[in-house]
C-alpha cells in the first residue's frame, strides 16, 4: 500500500481548514498544504494573531498554533501543492445553483470542475483525488471523466470521503468521529486508495469506525444523513406549532420521545428553524436527484422538510408582528444572534436572515447583536436576498457591538441564536431599560419562563403556549 507523506487540500474554508488542521495534528509524518485562490483567506490563515483566523471554531487556533509551519501550511501556490502531493482533497464550496438548469436546487459544481481540470493539467505523477465537499451523487464519476480525458497517462483514483463535522464542534467531531466514510471504486487500485486514506484516519480513530463503501453509497449517505437530521428538526418544529395551540410543552415531548432508544434524544430541540450550509442544500440536492429519476413521491416527501422549515421561520416572525399589535413600523426590535447556531461565525441559511427580512418588510427598526458575526457579513446576507436596496437595508437595520445599551427604549427582543452569553445577561436591567410592555421572543428556548415572567417580561418561548 502506498504510504502517504504529502497531502494537498484545495479550499481553505469551513471544511478544508479544520479537517486538514486535525490531520496534520494527528499525523506528524504527513506534510499537509492547504491551498486557496483567495489570497485574503490564506493571509488570514497565516496571521500572527490567532484570533484573526478566517473561521471561528473552538479548539482550532490551538491546533493551528501547534502545527502551522511544521507540517501544516497555507498557501496560494495551488499548482505546486498539487504537483507535490500524493493525495489531493477537493474542499471547495458547492453552493446551490442560482442560474440555469436546476436553479435553486442542484449544486453548482463549477468550482469542483475547475479544480479537477487544474489537477489534470498540473499532475505528472499518479494521484489519489478525494472529494471532501458535499456533492451530489455521481460527482466522483464526473471528476474521473475530466481527469481521465485530460491527463497525460497519469492514473487518478477518485475517492468520496464526505465530511460529517458540525460547525461549532468541528474539532471534536473530527477527533472523535462517530464514523469516517470512504467510498471508492471496487477495483484493486480503488481498494488500495481506500486503504491509503483509511490508514491516515487510523492514526487516531479505531479501525471499526472507518467504513468503506462504493462511491454511490458514500455520496448518497452524506445527503441522507443530513436529510434525516434536518427531518428530525422539522418534525419537532412541526409539533412545536401544535404545542403552542394546546397545553402541551415541546420540551416535555422531546424528552418523552427521546427516551425511546429507537428514537434517541439528539436533534429534538425545537427552534426558529435550522440553518447552515448543509441541511437545505443537501435536501434540495436529494429532491433534485429523486425528481431527475422520475421519483416524484420521494422528491415531495423530502421537500416537505424544507417547507416545514420555511414555515417555522415565517411563523416566528409573524408571531412577533401579531403580538406587537400588528404594527411594528418604526418599532425598535433587537435581534440577539445572527449565526445559524452558537459557537460559529457562519451565517449561511441562518433563520435570523429571514426573520430580520420579514420584520424589515413591516418597516421595523431592527438592531442586531451577535458576538462573532461581522457587520459586513450581516449586510451581505441581507443584500443577497435582493428584497430591497442595499441603502434601504442599512437604513432599516443597524449592527451593534454592545448588547446592553441597545435595549434602551426597545419594544422587543428576539433570540435567534443560542449563544451561552445571552443566558447570563442582566435581564432585570434590560427590562428596566425597555419600553413597557417589554416583549422577549425566544426562538431557541434559551431562557427560563418563570424567571422572565417574574421580572415582568411578556415572554414567548417557541413550542409553549
Ligand atoms: C450539519 C451536520 O450535523 C453535519 O454532520 C454535516 O457534516 C454538516 O451539516 P451543521 O450544519 O454545522 O452540521 O450544524 P448542526 O449542528 O447539524 O445544526 C444545523 C442546524 O439545525 C442549526 O441551525 C441548528 O441550530 C439546528 N438544530 C439542530 C435545531 O434547530 N435543533 C436541533 O435539535 C439540532
Ligand atoms: C408500534 C410501536 O413500536 C410501539 O411502540 C407502539 O406501542 C405500537 O406500535 P408495532 O406496531 O407492534 O409497535 O410494531 P413495530 O415493531 O413498531 O413495527 C411496525 C411496523 O413497521 C411493522 O410492520 C414493521 O415490520 C415495520 N418496520 C419497523 C419496518 O418496516 N422497518 C423497520 O425498521 C422497523
Ligand atoms: P466549505 O464550507 O465547503 O468549506 P467555504 O466557502 O468555507 O466552503 O470554502 C471553500 C473555499 O474554496 C473558499 O475559500 C474558496 O476560495 C476556495 N476555492 C473555490 N474554488 C477554488 C479553486 N478552484 N481553487 C482553490 N480554491 C478554491
Automatic annotation (TrEMBL):
Record carries keyword Ribonucleoprotein: no
**EC assignment:** 1.1.1.22
* UniProt-listed NCBIfam families: NDP-sugDHase
The record ties this protein, via SUPFAM superfamilies, to: 6-phosphogluconate dehydrogenase C-terminal domain-like, NAD(P)-binding Rossmann-fold domains, UDP-glucose/GDP-mannose dehydrogenase C-terminal domain
**Pathway listed for it?**
Nucleotide-sugar biosynthesis; UDP-alpha-D-glucuronate biosynthesis; UDP-alpha-D-glucuronate from UDP-alpha-D-glucose: step 1/1
- What InterPro entries would the database entry show? 6-PGluconate_DH-like_C_sf (IPR008927), NAD(P)-bd_dom_sf (IPR036291), UDP-Glc/GDP-Man (IPR017476), UDP-Glc/GDP-Man_DH_C (IPR014027), UDP-Glc/GDP-Man_DH_C_sf (IPR036220), UDP-Glc/GDP-Man_DH_dimer (IPR014026), UDP-Glc/GDP-Man_DH_N (IPR001732), UDPglc_DH_euk (IPR028356)
Q: Which reaction does it catalyse?
A: UDP-alpha-D-glucose + 2 NAD(+) + H2O = UDP-alpha-D-glucuronate + 2 NADH + 3 H(+)
Quick check: keyword NAD in the entry? yes
Instruction: List keywords of the entry alphabetically.
Output: NAD, Oxidoreductase
| Name of the protein in its database record | UDP-glucose 6-dehydrogenase
Q: What is the lineage of its organism?
A: Bacteria, Pseudomonadati, Bacteroidota, Flavobacteriia, Flavobacteriales
UDP-glucose/GDP-mannose dehydrogenase C-terminal domain residues are 334-449
Per the similarity annotation, which family is this? Belongs to the UDP-glucose/GDP-mannose dehydrogenase family.
Amino acid at each position: 500500500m502506498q504510504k502517504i507523506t504529502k497531502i494537498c487540500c484545495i479550499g481553505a474554508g469551513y471544511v478544508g481548514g479544520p479537517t486538514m488542521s486535525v490531520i496534520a495534528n494527528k499525523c506528524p509524518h504527513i506534510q499537509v498544504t492547504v491551498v486557496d485562490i483567495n489570497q485574503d483567506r490564506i493571509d488570514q490563515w497565516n496571521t500572527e494573531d490567532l484570533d484573526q483566523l478566517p473561521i471561528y471554531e473552538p479548539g482550532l487556533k490551538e491546533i493551528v498554533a501547534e502545527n502551522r509551519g511544521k507540517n501544516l501550511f497555507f498557501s496560494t501556490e495551488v499548482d505546486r501543492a498539487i504537483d507535490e502531493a500524493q493525495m489531493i482533497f477537493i474542499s471547495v464550496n458547492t453552493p446551490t445553483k442560482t442560474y440555469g438548469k436546476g436553479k435553486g436546487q442542484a449544486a453548482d459544481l463549477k468550482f469542483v470542475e475547475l479544480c479537477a481540470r487544474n489537477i489534470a493539467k498540473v499532475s505528472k505523477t499518479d494521484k489519489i483525488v478525494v472529494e471532501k465537499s458535499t456533492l451530489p451523487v455521481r460527482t466522483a464519476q464526473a471528476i474521473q471523466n475530466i481527469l481521465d480525458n485530460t491527463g497525460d497517462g497519469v492514473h487518478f483514483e477518485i475517492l468520496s470521503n464526505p465530511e460529517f463535522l458540525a460547525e461549532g464542534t468541528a474539532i471534536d467531531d473530527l477527533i472523535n468521529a462517530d464514523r469516517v466514510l470512504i467510498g471508492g471504486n471496487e477495483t484493486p487500485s480503488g481498494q488500495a486508495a481506500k486503504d491509503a486514506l483509511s490508514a491516515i484516519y487510523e492514526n487516531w480513530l479505531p479501525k471499526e469506525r472507518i467504513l468503506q463503501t462504493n462511491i454511490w453509497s458514500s455520496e448518497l449517505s452524506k445527503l441522507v444523513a443530513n436529510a434525516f437530521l434536518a427531518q428530525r428538526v422539522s418534525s419537532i418544529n412541526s409539533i412545536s406549532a401544535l404545542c403552542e395551540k394546546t397545553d402541551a410543552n415541546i420540551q416535555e415531548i422531546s424528552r418523552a420521545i427521546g427516551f425511546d432508544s429507537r428514537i434517541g434524544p439528539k436533534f429534538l430541540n425545537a427552534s426558529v428553524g435550522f440553518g447552515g450550509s448543509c441541511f437545505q442544500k443537501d435536501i434540495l440536492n436529494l429532491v433534485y436527484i429523486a425528481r431527475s429519476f422520475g421519483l416524484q413521491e420521494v422528491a415531495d416527501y423530502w421537500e416537505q422538510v424544507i417547507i416545514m422549515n420555511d414555515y417555522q421561520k415565517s411563523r416566528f416572525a409573524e408571531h412577533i408582528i401579531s403580538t406587537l399589535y400588528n404594527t411594528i413600523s418604526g418599532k425598535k426590535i433587537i435581534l440577539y444572534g445572527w449565526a445559524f447556531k452558537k459557537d460559529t461565525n457562519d451565517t449561511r441559511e441562518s433563520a435570523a436572515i429571514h426573520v430580520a427580512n420579514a420584520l424589515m418588510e413591516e418597516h421595523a427598526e431592527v438592531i442586531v447583536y451577535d458576538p462573532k458575526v461581522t457587520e459586513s457579513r450581516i449586510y451581505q446576507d441581507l443584500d443577497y436576498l435582493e428584497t430591497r436596496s442595499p441603502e434601504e437595508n442599512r437604513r432599516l437595520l443597524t449592527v451593534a457591538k454592545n448588547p446592553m445599551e441597545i435595549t434602551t427604549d426597545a419594544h422587543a427582543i428576539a433570540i435567534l441564536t443560542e449563544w451561552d452569553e445571552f443566558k447570563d445577561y442582566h435581564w432585570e436591567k434590560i427590562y428596566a431599560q425597555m419600553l413597557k410592555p417589554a416583549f422577549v421572543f425566544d426562538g431557541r428556548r434559551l431562557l427560563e419562563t418563570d424567571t422572565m415572567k417574574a421580572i415582568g417580561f411578556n415572554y414567548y418561548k417557541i413550542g409553549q403556549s
